[in-house]
């Protein structure tokens, strides 16, 4: 119903930003990460002072391994939190619980460290397909994503309030186009690799090696890092493949797909 709310309540840009950010959470839970990133981008241009949208997009970029973009968003988040922390009248409870600068800075250190490794993007997550999918599935997913996220169509998701000043909307269109262009290029890169049998085979081999290394590292007895703690509590650290296989409990009884994806009301 977020889409309907956006159509019928376009007068308030902060309200529209919340709708886009909440819809992004729904896309994320369904494994539709490019859709989630696009909605976070729209939320951010509508309300530049909305930390949840910035934080969520940083996490989404981290999930597809675009660590450079994740680091850029975390720098924005840190700057915003510093400004909000210096403003009188900000609730200490909200600020300390959800916007702790130490956690944001720890996440930035981690993102910058990962960016230096220059790890390839997670092309399967970008297209929203499984590694076992067929070439036909990849082609279908690419066409859908490319059509949906073409930069020329990105601003069509915004319902313009006729009372808003033209200068604001010019800036919005420019920023939305830039964000969509980056997303569109990632989608194209993913298709370029996964649609070529030889490139895909080489990519899959490298992915298997990375996954094996990651599993070996997780097998060690290491404490949870600050950024992992933050994501666990506030962003979920979602893996769509885990979610898709979690529709049943151990006893076979169905459970809510939204279990574990709840956010505190005082932060929206």
TrEMBL record:
Locate the transmembrane regions by residue number. none
Q: Quote the SUPFAM superfamilies the UniProt record gives.
A: Chaperone J-domain, TPR-like
Protein source organism: Hordeum vulgare subsp. vulgare
Any one GO CC term of this protein is:
endoplasmic reticulum
| Record field: compositional bias (Basic and acidic residues) | 226-235
* Pfam short name (any one): DnaJ
Supply the source organism's classification: Eukaryota, Viridiplantae, Streptophyta, Embryophyta, Tracheophyta
Q: What is this protein called?
A: Predicted protein
Domain J positions: 122-207
InterPro entries associated with the record: DnaJ_domain, DnaJ_domain_CS, J_dom_sf, TPR-like_helical_dom_sf, TPR_rpt
Which portions of the sequence form the region Disordered? 214-268
């Amino acid at each position: 119903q977020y889409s309907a709310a956006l159509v019928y309540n376009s007068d308030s840009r902060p309200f529209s930003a919340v709708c886009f950010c909440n819809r992004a959470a729904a896309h994320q839970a369904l494994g539709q990460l490019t859709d989630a990133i696009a909605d976070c981008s729209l939320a951010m241009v509508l309300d530049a002072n909305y930390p949840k949208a910035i934080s969520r997009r940083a996490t989404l970029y981290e999930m597809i391994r675009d660590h450079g973009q994740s680091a850029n968003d975390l720098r924005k988040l840190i700057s915003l939190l510093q400004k909000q922390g210096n403003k009188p009248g900000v609730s200490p409870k909200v600020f300390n619980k959800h916007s702790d600068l130490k956690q944001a800075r720890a996440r930035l250190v981690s993102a910058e460290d990962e960016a230096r490794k220059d790890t390839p993007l997670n092309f399967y997550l970008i297209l929203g397909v499984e590694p076992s999918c067929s070439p036909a599935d990849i082609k279908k997913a690419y066409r859908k994503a490319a059509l949906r996220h073409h930069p020329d169509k990105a601003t069509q998701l915004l319902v313009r309030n006729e009372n808003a000043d033209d200068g604001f909307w010019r800036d919005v269109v420019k920023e939305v186009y830039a964000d969509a262009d980056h997303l569109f290029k990632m989608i194209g890169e993913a298709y370029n690799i996964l649609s070529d049998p030889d490139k895909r085979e080489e990519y899959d081999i490298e992915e298997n090696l990375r996954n094996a290394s990651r599993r070996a590292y997780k097998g060690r007895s290491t404490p949870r890092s600050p950024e992992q703690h933050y994501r666990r509590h506030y962003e979920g650290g979602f893996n769509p493949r885990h979610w898709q296989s979690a529709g049943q409990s151990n006893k076979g009884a169905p459970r809510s797909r939204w279990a574990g994806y709840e956010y505190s009301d005082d932060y929206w």
